[in-house]
Design goal:
This protein has 9 helices and 6 strands; from the N terminus they run βαααβββαααββααα. By secondary structure, it is mainly alpha-helical. The chain has one domain. The longest helix is centred in the middle third of the chain and has 17 residues. It is globular.
Amino acid sequence: MANGGPVEHGYPHLETVRAAVTALYRRLSRDTIETFSASVAPADVAFCDTDDLHLGAQRVAREIVRHFRLPDARLIVGFREMTHAANVELAAGPEYFVELNDRFRTHRADIGAALAHEVAHVYLHRLDLAFPGTAENEILTDTAAAYLGAGWLLLDAYRQDAVSSQKLGYLTPEEFGYVLAKRALLFGEDPSLWFTSPQAYTAYVKGRDRARRDGQQPPLAAAGWAGRR
């Protein structure tokens, strides 16, 4: 979680992101991915300052668990001082203990974003889908959250001004935009309508342009004579 520090931009993880999307299709199938055609609705994870902190966090967690079709999974959400945004204990289930950074006690609108990443961890854990290496596995988790309809929350949590910054997740803002645009091209949706952060919208537009360029490349352009045939 970047908090007041520099935010990485660009596409340094793009090959891993593309491999993550491929891995999702191989593990889930196109038919299963199409069951995620509806993204998490903003109203379902809305959290205002007057809501009870713990009851509200549990409610949002249940909505994201429902989105990932994990009916028997129960998240127990707590808060503590920590460096990262959140952490989940990947046990056998059905109960999973999730710790959120104390920052979210006063930044409640972003609790859904933090939980989207952690529930995606649970989902992939149950699929037994993982990449070797911690960094690659976190990129897989962010990509899965975004491609399956919950990750727009992570991009919307990106905010930056002259004196502070906040970004959740391991993808850059533009990489989140890229994955969300790939999803949007598949399902014909426009996630930018849900953004409350102007920086998130800008990153989405840049990622969308990059995603569209993918479809404009000649097929097998980098392949040799034998590969093309």
